[in-house]
Specification:
- The protein is mainly beta.
- Helices cover 5% and strands 38% of the residues.
- It has one helix and eight strands.
- A hairpin with a 2-residue loop joins strand 3 and strand 4.
Length: 111
C-alpha cells in the first residue's frame, strides 16, 4: 500500500516522501479468500444429503442457518450473499460460497 506524503520529511525541508506498507494475510483454517468472496467446505452425511438438512455455517459475522435440500450432491455450492470480505474503497461485501461435501461411508469386508 502506498501512502502518498506519509513518509519522512525530505532533505532541506523538502516535502515528505511516500510511505509503503507491506501487508501479508495469514491463511485461515476454515475460509479461503478469492477476491472479495470467501470459500468454505462443510461435511454432511449421506442420510443428510438424501433427506435434506439445515446446518449451521460459520461466517465472519457469526453463524447462519443453511438449508441443504434433499438430494443434494457432493460439491454443490451454496451462496450466502454479502457474507464475504468488505469491498475495499467501495460499498458492500463479497459473497461466501459454501461447498457441501457428502461423506460416503466405506465398508470393508472382513475375512
Amino acid at each position: 500500500l502506498r501512502l502518498k506524503g506519509g513518509g519522512e520529511m525530505g532533505k532541506y525541508d523538502g516535502p515528505p516522501g511516500d510511505l509503503y506498507v507491506v501487508v501479508s494475510v495469514k491463511k485461515h483454517s476454515f475460509f479461503t479468500r478469492v477476491g472479495n468472496d470467501l470459500l468454505c467446505e462443510v461435511l454432511i452425511s449421506m442420510p443428510q444429503a438424501l433427506k435434506g438438512v439445515e446446518i449451521e455455517v460459520p461466517t465472519l459475522k457469526g453463524k447462519v442457518c443453511l438449508k441443504v435440500p434433499a438430494g443434494s450432491l457432493s460439491g454443490k455450492v451454496f451462496v450466502l450473499k454479502g457474507q464475504g470480505m468488505p469491498v475495499l474503497e467501495g460499498v458492500g461485501c463479497g459473497d461466501q460460497k459454501v461447498i457441501v461435501r457428502v461423506e460416503i461411508p466405506i465398508h470393508r469386508r472382513s475375512n
